[in-house]
Amino acid sequence: MTFGSDARPHVLVTGGAGYIGSHTTLELLTAGYDVTVLDNLSNASSESLRRVGSIVGGKINFWRGDVRDGALLDRVFGGEEVGQQKISAVVHFAALKSAPESVDNPLDYYNCNVSGTISLLTAMSRHNINSFVFSSTAAVYGTPQQGVKLIPEQHDTRPENPYGRSKLMVENIIRDVCTANKDMRAVILRYFNPVGAHESGIIGESPRGTPGNLVPYVLQTVAGQRSHLNVTGLDWPTVDGSGVRDFIHVVDLAKGHVAALSYAKQLHQSTPATVSSTAILADPTIHPTCPTFNMGTGSGSSVLQLISTMESVTGLPVPWVKAPRRPGDVAEVVANPAKANGTLGWEASLGVEEMCRDAWRWKSENMDGYDGPEGPVGVEVKEGVRVVIGGGAEREGREPGSPGPNR
Ligand SMILES: NC(=O)c1ccc[n+]([C@@H]2O[C@H](COP(=O)([O-])OP(=O)(O)OC[C@H]3O[C@@H](n4cnc5c(N)ncnc54)[C@H](O)[C@@H]3O)[C@@H](O)[C@H]2O)c1
C-alpha cells in the first residue's frame, strides 16, 4: 500500500511520545496527517501526547507497546478507526539513544535498535506498507576526516560506539529492503544535535536521571538543579577551545519529517533513477529508493557560545568548570545540509537564540518535565490497548492529568 490520493493519510510514529517524536507528531497533525503512535514509554510519558493533542486540537491513536512485538504490530497495522485511512507510512523513532550507555550495554542497543527495526519492517511487509522514514544520526560518521568542515552524506562512516553502529546497521538493512522490494520507498535522516522545544513551552525534552545531552544539563544548571556544568575539553582547535556542534531546533527537525514523508510520496510517483550497484556500493546514501539526508543547519556553535547565548536569553548565570576531554569526543561536527535543502525543499530556519529561548520557556514552566509533584502524570495506558488521546476525550484510559505509574 502506498499513499492514496484521499485526504488525511495515516502515519504510524514509533517512539512518538519521546522528545523528537512528540514534536513530529504535532507537525504531522498540523500538516493534515492522521497519526497513530506506538511507544513502550521506556523513556517517555503519554502526557507528551495529551499536550500535543491540546496544542493542535487533534486526536492521536496511542498504543503502549514495543516495536519488537510482531503480534501487536499486526493489530496496530490492521486496526481501523471509523473515518480514518489504514496506516500507509511509518516514521520510526523508537530506539535507545545514549552513546556512552551503549558501550556498557551493547546487546540492549542492538536488540532494541536493530531487532526492533527488523520486526517493524517485517510487519510492514506483512501489511504491504511501503513508506518509511528512519531516525539516524551524525554518530554514524565518527570522527570527521581531517580538513572536512561541513560533513556531506558521502563522508566515510566509522561509528565509534555500539549506538552509532546499531544505526548504521539499520541504515544498511533498510537499503537492502528497498533493493529487494521494488514497491518500498524509504528516507534516512541523519540528525545532528537536536535541541530546543515547541515555542508554546508546553512540550519539550524531559530526560530521566542525569541528562546525557548538553542543553538539558545546561537548563538544569540555570534552574539551580545542578551546581555547575562540566565543559569537557577547552583545548580543541576551535574558535574558543570548546567543542563545536551543529545544533538544530527540534521544531525545524520535526518539520523535516513532514518534508521527508512528502518526498517518499514523490518517490512512489516517479520512476526510480537507474544507479549501478557499484555506485551504490561506493556511496550507499545515493540509493534511488532509499536516499539519505543530513538534518543540520550547516552552522556550528561552540559549547561556550551556547552557554553565553543561554545566559543572555535567561538573564541567569550558567556556572561551568573546565573538565578533561571525554574519550571519543571530537572538535567539530557540523552538517552539510545542501542535499536536504535542495532535494527535500527543507531548511532549518531557527537559530541558537530561538533554541535557547524555547528550551528555557519549556524548562522554566515545567521544572520536572512531564512529572508532577507526586511523580509521573498522564493518561494511564495498559499495554496493547489502543487509547485515543486528544480531540476532547481520552478513551479506554483514566482522565488525563491523574497520576499513574505509566512511564
Ligand atoms: N536526541 C538526539 O540527540 C538524537 C540525535 C540523533 C538521532 N536521534 C534518534 O532520534 C530518535 C528519537 O530520539 P529522542 O531524542 O526523541 O529520544 P527519546 O528517548 O525521547 O524517544 C525515543 C522513544 O522511543 C521509545 N522507545 C524506545 N524503545 C522502544 C521500543 N523498543 N518500542 C517502542 N518504543 C520504544 C521511548 O519510550 C521514547 O519515547 C531515536 O531513534 C534517536 O536515536 C536522536
Automatic annotation (TrEMBL):
GO molecular function per UniProt: UDP-glucose 4-epimerase activity
GO cellular component terms attached to this protein's record: cytosol
Catalytic activity: UDP-alpha-D-glucose = UDP-alpha-D-galactose
GO-annotated biological processes: galactose metabolic process
Keyword Isomerase: yes
Required co-factors: NAD(+)
SUPFAM superfamilies per the UniProt record, alphabetical: NAD(P)-binding Rossmann-fold domains
Pfam family, one: Epimerase
Gene3D superfamilies named in the record: NAD(P)-binding Rossmann-like Domain, UDP-galactose 4-epimerase, domain 1
Keywords for the protein's UniProt record, in alphabetical order: Carbohydrate metabolism, Galactose metabolism, Isomerase, NAD
Transmembrane segments: none
Pathway terms, separated by semicolons: Carbohydrate metabolism; galactose metabolism; Carbohydrate metabolism; hexose metabolism
Domain NAD-dependent epimerase/dehydratase per the UniProt entry, residue ranges: 11-264
UniProt xrefs under InterPro entries: Epimerase_deHydtase, NAD(P)-bd_dom_sf, UDP_G4E
Keyword Membrane applies: no
Summary of the function given for this chain in its UniProt record: Mutarotase converts alpha-aldose to the beta-anomer. It is active on D-glucose, L-arabinose, D-xylose, D-galactose, maltose and lactose.
Membership in a protein family: In the C-terminal section; belongs to the aldose epimerase family.
Protein name (record): NAD-dependent epimerase/dehydratase domain-containing protein
Classification of source organism: Eukaryota, Fungi, Fungi incertae sedis, Chytridiomycota, Chytridiomycota incertae sedis
